[in-house]
């Protein structure tokens, strides 16, 4: 015999609309049926009547009348090209995964894979995350981005509550982001601070960031710290770069701005016409999100993860004689 249930609202569901809560917990329950149950008072929140747009809070109890087992399960779909694609995407994500718990995924993103969609982008991480929806139907959420050609650490929230906390940590700059780059030349001084304003401009080759003046329309402040870890004569340097702000292309623009562009950067690497790209080095962007330290969304401790170098940077490190193990704690 079907019975009435009482379900408690979880911590990560704070502020969720009631209809959205039902979509997560009872994905098979149709909108019309839900509205009928609400209008008749069969669904209640803490004993009181509620509407579909009622915002719920942790600890509240939701009265669930008998809705049938079909309402609790996601629609099962036959094996099609689309479902096969989701399986393939899930396999790719599994290969990228370097850390997971019940609130967070951390991926090591390869070069050439966009994080989000855009002009000319047919495959990206945000789309691939559809393959990893949980039993409630929740899709993992992006909380920050890295450039398409940049490799390394990408943090993804598994729940709505985790996304709110992680986004707050990025916004309030409670994170430590460590990037490795190989640049042309050796910066002087070997350790420094780059502070500029950046503005986006459109060019025939797509959007590009440029140095701007304080007060220019659309200009945002950008602050980066860097230090030289090792060098190959006066020709190339291995930098650790820490962005204090998170502007588009920030590290790439800042490296070029001080006269030491990142190897393989298709937008900001400018050189004399007689300069030749070093033999044995792939013409790929040599910028890698190496490490992140961020407060855990559950409020306990931190997430501290390191991403292995991509193959093209391993090749360059070997060629230049750089030892990545010498720096890691």
From TrEMBL:
UniProt-listed InterPro entries: PsdUridine_synth_cat_dom_sf, PsdUridine_synth_RluA-like_CS, PsdUridine_synth_RluC/D, PsdUridine_synth_RsuA/RluA, RluA_PseudoU_synthase, S4_RNA-bd_sf
Pfam family, one: PseudoU_synth_2
Keyword Isomerase applies: yes
Keyword flag Cell membrane: no
Reaction equations catalysed: a uridine in RNA = a pseudouridine in RNA; uridine(1911/1915/1917) in 23S rRNA = pseudouridine(1911/1915/1917) in 23S rRNA
EC number: 5.4.99.-
Domain Pseudouridine synthase RsuA/RluA-like: 104-257
Keywords tagged on the record: Isomerase, RNA-binding
PANTHER family: MITOCHONDRIAL RNA PSEUDOURIDINE SYNTHASE, RIBOSOMAL LARGE SUBUNIT PSEUDOURIDINE SYNTHASE D
Family of the protein in this entry: Belongs to the pseudouridine synthase RluA family.
Role noted for this protein: Responsible for synthesis of pseudouridine from uracil.
Protein name according to UniProt: Pseudouridine synthase
């Amino acid at each position: 015999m079907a019975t009435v249930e009482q379900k408690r609202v979880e911590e990560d569901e704070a502020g969720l609309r009631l209809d959205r809560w039902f979509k997560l917990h009872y994905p098979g329950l149709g909108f019309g049926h839900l509205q009928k149950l609400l209008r008749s008072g069969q669904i209640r929140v803490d004993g009181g009547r509620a509407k579909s747009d009622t915002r719920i809070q942790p600890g509240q109890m939701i009265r669930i009348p008998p809705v049938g087992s079909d309402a609790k399960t996601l629609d099962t779909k036959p094996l099609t090209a689309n479902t096969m694609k989701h399986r393939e995407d899930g396999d790719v994500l599994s290969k990228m995964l370097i850390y997971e718990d019940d609130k967070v995924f951390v991926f090591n993103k390869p070069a050439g894979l966009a994080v989000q969609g855009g002009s000319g982008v047919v495959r990206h991480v945000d789309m691939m995350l559809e393959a990893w929806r949980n039993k409630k139907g929740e899709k993992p959420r992006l909380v920050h981005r890295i450039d398409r050609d940049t490799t390394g650490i990408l943090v993804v929230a598994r729940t709505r509550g985790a996304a709110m906390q992680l986004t707050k940590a990025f916004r309030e700059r409670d994170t430590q982001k460590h990037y490795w780059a190989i640049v042309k030349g050796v910066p002087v001084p070997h350790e420094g601070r780059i502070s500029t304003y950046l503005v986006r401009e459109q060019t025939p080759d797509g959007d590009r960031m440029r140095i701007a003046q304080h007060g220019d329309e659309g200009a945002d402040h950008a602050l980066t710290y860097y230090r030289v870890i090792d060098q190959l004569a006066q020709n190339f340097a291995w930098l650790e770069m820490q962005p204090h702000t998170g502007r588009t292309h920030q590290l790439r623009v800042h490296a070029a701005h001080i006269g030491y562009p990142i190897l393989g950067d298709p937008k900001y690497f400018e050189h004399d016409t007689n300069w030749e790209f070093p033999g044995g080095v792939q013409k790929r962007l040599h910028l890698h999100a190496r490490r992140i330290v961020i407060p855990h969304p559950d409020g306990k401790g931190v997430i501290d993860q390191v991403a292995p170098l991509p193959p093209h940077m391993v090749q360059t490190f070997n060629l230049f004689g750089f030892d990545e193990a010498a720096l890691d704690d």
